[in-house]
Amino acid sequence: MSETMMAVRKLEKAPGLTVEEVPIPEMGVDEVLVAVEAASVCGTDLHIWKWDDWASNRIRPPLTIGHEFAGTVVDVGSAVRHVSIGDYVSAESHVTCGMCFQCRTGQAHMCPMTRILGVDRDGCFADYVSIPEKVVWRNDRNKIPPEIATLQEPFGNGVFATLAHELAGQSVAVLGCGPTGLFSIGIANASGAGSVYAADINDYRLSLATTMGADRVYNPLRQGDDVATWMIEANEGYGVDIVLEMSGAASSIDAAFRGVRNGGRVTLFGIPSTPVRIDVAESMIFKNLTVLALNGRRIFDTWYKTRWLLESGRVDLRPVITKEVSLKEVEEVMKTLAAGQAGKVILRPSIEISQPETRNGLPGVNANVEGQDLHR
């Protein structure tokens, strides 16, 4: 096997990304090396490409980006005990310390010392990625193909935010139809929601929301009315039972509190770019609301729910996949995502070997593909 690979890299403290040849990652004794079969692009990767305020304060180039993937283990460190060469895996992107209060009380998703793949250490937009054994998640290739297995990590965000509520028979509004919002629509339907409403300012995303099972969709920029008013009218004149705010937009957060019924529930999952002002008395206390502020997913509790929803076929994520492309097309992918004209885009590494192999001579992967549109 070659000692080098292709990778998508952040090389400078400036907008843009570079695809370049770099050494295959070295493993620690407690790490495994994975041949990446599919990786998916996240909003975090878009922030890094744009080099916005968050990225400039967090990212330290040079760095291989990406944190959502599926692939085959091709080598293991000397201290690895539970993962074997040939295992078909994904990974929890948050590498937690294991020793803080949160980690030791079953709240590892809140670990203050978390290091994230593709953010704080080299990630998976590459032919190979090295990850700690403790974040490995085994997949069943017969039930979940790579282009779906790579989506488990972000899909888990939707699972965590949506299944925080009893959904059967309830009216649910999803405000913001990016990938997590779209996932939430599918999860709400799979959980027996009585009706699902979706709002966004992007008609392309609303078309995906309809495909994922939204009963009614709304674009306030095009249709002109207030989102909260629309939610109430859509729900026969009553506020909805549950609102999932997935955009982080101040106007959407305001609509969430005004459009939910008295005694209803609001989950805040979208991340505002600036502080948001809320009238706590009128918007929450006098309405007797239950308000949840959530982030990420529970490690690994949410992963088990995620696997069941996908393996059982209760939720089909294929409508959310817009394209599969090679690593070299990442710049165009970022432009498409920035324009809001894609759901999830799958990157396929550039391994070009007729008989895939691992470092120990076992079967690996051959994931070289040309760009193709899977949604149209």
CA-to-CA gap between the ends?
A: 37 Å
What is the arithmetic mean of pLDDT? 93
Which CATH architecture of the largest domain? Alpha-Beta Complex
How many domain units? 2
Question: What is the CATH T-level topology of the largest domain?
Answer: Quinone Oxidoreductase, Chain A, domain 1
**Radius of gyration over C-alpha positions, nearest whole angstrom:** 21 Å
What would the principal axes of the Cα set say about the shape? Answer: globular
Relevant CATH superfamily of the largest domain: Medium-chain alcohol dehydrogenases, catalytic domain
Q: Tell me the helix content.
A: 25-40%
Topology, number of strands: 19
| Total helical elements | 13
Main sheet: strands, sense, barrel: 8 strands, mixed
Secondary-structure content class: alpha/beta
Under CATH at level 1, the class of the largest domain stands as Alpha Beta
SSE topology sketch:
Elements: E1 4-10, E2 18-23, E3 31-40, H1 43-50, H2 53-58, E4 63-64, E5 68-76, E6 88-91, E7 94-95, H3 101-104, E8 115-116, E9 128-132, E10 136-138, H4 146-149, H5 152-162, E11 171-175, H6 179-190, E12 195-199, H7 203-211, E13 216-218, H8 220-223, H9 227-234, E14 240-245, H10 250-259, E15 260-268, H11 280-285, E16 290-293, H12 301-311, E17 321-326, H13 330-338, E18 344-348, E19 372-373
Parallel strand pairs: 11-12, 11-14, 12-13, 14-15, 15-16, 17-18
Antiparallel strand pairs: 1-2, 1-4, 3-5, 3-9, 3-18, 5-6, 6-10, 7-8, 17-19
Helix pairs in contact: 5-6, 5-12, 9-10
